[in-house]
TrEMBL record:
Ranges of residues in domain 3-hydroxyacyl-CoA dehydrogenase NAD binding: 292-468
Family recorded in the similarity comment: Belongs to the enoyl-CoA hydratase/isomerase family. In the N-terminal section; belongs to the enoyl-CoA hydratase/isomerase family.
Domain of life the protein comes from: Bacteria
Organism phylogeny: Bacteria, Pseudomonadati, Pseudomonadota, Alphaproteobacteria, Rhodobacterales
Catalytic activity, as annotated: a (3S)-3-hydroxyacyl-CoA + NAD(+) = a 3-oxoacyl-CoA + NADH + H(+)
Protein name: Enoyl-CoA hydratase/isomerase family protein
Matches recorded under Pfam families: 3HCDH, 3HCDH_N, ECH_1
Species the sequence originates in: Sulfitobacter geojensis
Keyword flag Lyase: yes
GO biological process entries: fatty acid metabolic process; lipid catabolic process
Domain (3-hydroxyacyl-CoA dehydrogenase C-terminal): residue spans on this chain: 473-566, 602-687
Length: 698
């Protein structure tokens, strides 16, 4: 037996305590230890039952991620679950903290389950492009029925103890030390003469319309295949014997193990954990943060204030006028009332946040005690410099001055103050209290502890924080401008915006680029085009058909008309017939004969433009690693998680083929399709973007 399992005996009960901190991951040593401890309990004279408990924070949080991608080691998890279930002794799992993935499958192998009220269970394998592979899809439906099991497995969501009890997955919920309540429950079962109750021997769940369910889950997953594959595994639990169902689950699991989607989702899983781990911040202590200032109470400022309040900060928000300040307070209260309705906060907490923790003022002097202030005003350099001049005058020494700019030069903003070392970019994404991405933009003179504080704030707010250097648009918006331009070029050359949107949604994006433009506001792109016009290279193709719409005051969803027309109260729009007329007029003016595009060509051009610009961003050091680009696109721009991000997509399809396509497109437009030097070098050296991620981790 390994030291990962402590074996103790309490009268006629053997207690198997899992000791693999911090969360009792199911490493090979834990699996072997459980197997050996079961053997010992069965050989231990007088033992009538086994209680399995976890030490520390959790029962078992799932697989050991350090074993991902390595050859499997015996005993494998399906065999261990079967071994526990087959024991002639009565086996009980006492669950606390989380029991996820293989952890829940171990518990399902027990004959009875007791859980703490705060315990949570789940089968999150779909988030790794997989399905449960150790009987989860076969045992859970026998306890909870098909519908509830499918909801849990296809969503990967965590279920609280009370719901798990209602579902029949746990048999009792009791507060107390997991071992003590477990032993009490085992004693009760033995006193009652309770018999073994292997889940595998329970009746199979009744059938449903499997094909309709499969199609619905596939559609909901926007092309992700693991949730839909889980439907087929649960179907096997309903239609086949338990042993045949287990074999079918294993076949489907192994099938998914070999897919591109699994590669992409594993990359996303590890990158999400690596993105905030920066060598430059090792040993750097962040500054203390208790009170946050926000300048501007529009949608963005109110969202930032909401996120800060929900994370326990006091907030001082500055607006220009009393009316604007009242409106900002209303926006924040509206955001918080959403959290109240969803049960995220209590009424008492809501009252505290809106009446005590939040101060709304028109006086910059109200900011004199804040530790960090985020400017979220109009995207205009002169306006921002004026704000930073005022902040410089009123904020205390050591207060961090942050700009929420989307595009503008943070070095130039910092120069408007006497303390450029305290200035940083914190680019939130709207709505800021919901969107997970935060770009931490490091200017030339930003102090290391200011960078560390930016990341500490991101963590406190529950954000995925990505380090970005200074350039027009930083990481995300710079790349967006390029792939969006590729889409505009395709419109001029003959593809409709609606075909492009559909092709990219089918690829897995949450929305197409033209629907996104309507949502964000067409005036943003219009302003950017006007701002860049004086320095534009003569060879650059810039479609202007949409500017005609902006000149008429149509900016997308907020005005009811953009690429799509929007009815009041409806989020989805219908194609705007004016667009085809505006495009045709520009085509005629430029002498372009439109040609048809296939959906495949649309996706390929869009993705090649994205990867090429991203390679330039990494090559220039704006993003330190390819994974920084991947996380930016995943969490800020609706990129499909199952591809892992654009850099991972490029690795999967082959950098050589991506470069070859870019070079072919360059024959039509050499200015736009200039291959990134980094991409050319990687192809020449036979290396991948992921190799660069590994280099950075050394």
């Amino acid at each position: 037996m390994t030291d990962k399992i402590a074996y103790t005996r309490h009268d006629d009960v053997a207690v198997l305590r899992i000791q693999n901190p911090p969360v009792n991951a199911l490493s090979q040593a834990v699996r072997q230890g459980l197997w050996d401890a079961m053997d010992r309990a069965e050989a231990d004279e007088g033992v009538r039952a086994v209680l399995i408990v976890g030490e520390g924070r959790a029962f078992i949080a799932g697989a050991d991620i350090t074993e991902f991608g390595k050859p499997p080691m015996e005993p494998n998890l399906p065999a261990l679950c079967t071994r526990i279930e087959a024991s002639p002794l009565l086996v009980v799992a006492s669950m606390h903290g989380v029991s996820l993935g293989g952890g829940l499958e171990i518990a399902l192998g027990a004959h009875y389950r007791i859980a703490q009220p705060s315990a949570r269970i789940g089968l999150p394998e779909v988030h790794l492009g997989l399905i449960p592979g150790a009987g989860g899809t076969q045992r859970l439906p026998r306890l909870a029925g098909v519908e509830k099991s499918l909801d849990m497995i296809t969503s990967g969501r965590q279920v609280k103890a009370a719901e798990a009890l209602d579902m029949g997955v746990v048999d009792r919920v009791a507060e107390g030390d997991p071992e003590a309540v477990g032993l009490s429950y085992v004693s009760e079962l033995l006193a009652e003469g309770a018999t073994r109750r292997p889940v595998s021997e329970l009746p199979a769940a009744p059938a449903i319309d499997w094909d309709a369910t499969y199609n619905a889950v596939l559609q909901k997953g926007r092309g992700q295949i693991s949730p839909a594959t889980a439907v087929r595994a649960v179907q096997a639990a309903s239609e086949l014997s338990f042993a045949e169902g287990m074999a079918k689950e294993r076949d489907l699991f192994m099938e998914l193990m070999g897919t591109d989607q699994r590669q992409g989702m594993i990359h996303a899983f590890f990158s999400e954990r690596a993105v905030g781990n920066l060598p430059e911040l090792k040993g750097v202590t962040p500054r203390d943060l208790k009170a946050i200032g926000v300048i501007g109470g529009g949608t963005m400022g109110a969202g930032i204030a909401t996120a800060a309040l929900l994370s326990g900060f006091d907030v001082v928000l500055i607006e220009m006028t009393v009316d604007a300040a009242e409106a900002a307070h209303g926006r924040i209260s509206g955001n918080l009332s959403g959290a109240l309705k969803r049960g995220k906060i209590s009424q008492e907490k809501f009252d505290t946040l809106t009446q005590k923790a939040l101060t709304v003022s028109t006086d910059y002097d109200s900011l004199k005690d804040v530790d960090l202030v985020v400017e979220a005003v109009f995207e205009n350099m002169d306006v921002k410099k004026e704000v930073f001049g005022k902040l410089d005058a009123v904020c205390k020494a050591g207060c961090i001055l942050a700009s929420n700019t989307s595009y503008l030069d943070v070095d130039e903003i910092a120069a408007a103050t006497s303390r450029p070392a305290d200035v940083i970019g914190l680019h939130f994404f709207s709505p800021a209290h919901i969107m997970k991405l935060l770009e931490v933009v490091v200017a030339e003179q930003t102090a290391p502890d200011v960078v560390a504080t930016g990341f500490a704030l991101g963590k406190a707010l529950g954000k995925i924080s990505v380090r970005a250097g200074v350039c027009d648009g930083f990481i995300g918006n710079r790349i967006l401008a390029t792939y969006r331009t590729a889409a505009d070029h395709m419109v001029l050359d003959g593809a409709s915006p609606y075909q492009i949107d559909k092709a990219l949604v089918d690829f897995g994006f949450a929305m197409g680029p033209f629907a996104v433009a309507d949502l964000a506001g067409l005036d943003i792109g219009w302003m950017t085009r006007k701002r860049k016009a004086p320095d534009r290279h003569p060879a650059e193709r810039v479609p202007t058909y949409i500017d005609r719409l902006c000149e008429e005051g149509h900016f997308g969803q907020k005005t009811g008309e953009g690429y799509y027309l929007y009815e009041a109260g409806k989020r989805a729009g219908v194609p705007n017939p004016k667009i085809s007329e505006l495009v045709a007029a520009e085509q005629a003016e430029l002498g372009i004969t439109p040609r048809p595009f296939t959906d495949e060509e649309i996706v390929r051009r869009y993705m090649c433009a994205m990867v090429n610009e991203a390679a330039k961003v990494v090559g220039e050091g704006i993003a330190r690693r390819p994974l920084d680009v991947d996380m930016t696109l995943l969490f800020g721009y609706g990129f499909p998680r199952y591809w892992g991000g654009p850099m991972k997509w490029a690795d999967i399809v082959g950098l050589d083929t991506v470069l070859a396509d870019i070079e072919a497109y360059a024959s039509e437009d050499a200015w736009f399709w200039q291959p990134a030097p980094l991409l050319k070098k990687l192809v020449a050296d036979g290396r991948t973007f992921d190799d660069l991620n590994k280099d950075a981790a050394k």
